Predict the structure.
Amino acid sequence: MPDFRQLTDEQLLARCRFEAFRGPGPGGQKRNKTSSAVRLTHRASGISVIAGESRSQHRNRDVAIGRLRLQIAIRLREGVDLSRFPDPKRLDVSRKSADYPGVVGVVLDVLDSVGWSISDAAKIIGVTTGPLVGFLRADAMVWTEVNRQRKKMGLRTLN
C-alpha cells in the first residue's frame, strides 16, 4: 500500500468508498432533507470514519478525511524511514495541523520497530521519554493504541 502520508486529499479519496447520508446533529428541518453526513471507508484497510457535525457535506467530507488520516496513522504500521522523520521539535505539532496524522504515524512506526519501548523510541527520535510520552498522551486514541500494543508485547501499560 502506498504511503498515505504522501497522498493528497483527492488521491486518498480515490482509495475510499464515499457515502453521504442523513445523519443526526444540527440543522433542524434541513437535516431531514439533505444527506450531509459523510462516511469514508478506506478500501485497502477497511477503516471507516464518519463526520456529520456540519450542515455542509463538503465540510463534513474534509473532517472525515482528517479523521481517516489519523485512524490510518494509528492503526496501520509501515517500515520506518528515519530520513523522513520530522525534527524532534515537531512533536509539539497541534492536533489541528494537517501534519499531525503523519507525525503520529511515524512516531508509532518507530515505536513498533523497537517493540513499543518508549526509551528506545525516544533515543531514535532524538528526545527524552518525557516529551514522547507527553505527545502520545495528548491524544486518547493514540494513547490507547500504544497501551494496546504494549500489552500485546507483554509490556506494562503506561499510566
Remarks:
- The chain is about 45% helix and 10% strand.
- The chain has two domains: 4-75, 82-152.
